[in-house]
Amino acid sequence: MTSNETHQSTEMGRKKASNQEDLLINPLIIRINQRTFERLSKILQDSGCRSMGEVARKILTQEKINCFYRDESLSGPMEELALIRKEIKAIGVNINQQTRYFNASKSGSEKTFYAMRTGPLYKEVDVKIDILLAVISKLAAKWLPES
Q: For residue 111, how far is the Cα from the chain centroid?
């Protein structure tokens, strides 16, 4: 290894920021009362911010803070939708396997066998789609305005 290679390998630290003006290099230490701290903690919990400092910076610079709220009344329907999605996916995997076996079959009787096994799987999908549409209709009735 040459001296130039050694010099380059020891300088493999962090890359310099492209815009030096945007670096957060000036610390600011403040004290706040409990009520204000709780308000900031709630904003931190509900927002996409990663730290209390980020919340404070956004407030000071008047940047928009996006807060995300979870509606607990949707937990049941969302779990049901997730379960239906999982079941439909599993049925789809089974249909794909049956189709592969069908296409790999040489004799007509084997093809008939796999075709007969695939039919009920499509009926299962039909039942799951009916349940899915019923859940979506309930959600639409609750959350979408009547027109």
A: 40
Can you give the pTM of this predicted structure? 0.47
If DSSP codes are grouped into helix, strand and coil, which group holds residue 145? Answer: coil
What value, to the nearest 5°, has the Cα angle with vertex 129 and ends 128 and 132?
Answer: 90
Tokens of 1: 């290894």
Domain ranges, ordered by start, for the chain: 28-69, 72-143
Question: Closest Cα partner for 99 from 118, 127, 119, 83?
Answer: 118
CATH number, span 72-143: 1.20.58
Other C-beta atoms closer than 10 Å to the C-beta of 133 total 10
Residue 146 to residue 114: CA distance in whole angstroms: 47
Instruction: Provide block-wise average pLDDT over 10 residues at a time, the chain (147 residues).
Output: 50 72 82 93 89 90 83 78 91 92 89 88 90 86 69
The answer to whether 108 and 88 have CB atoms below 8 angstroms apart is no
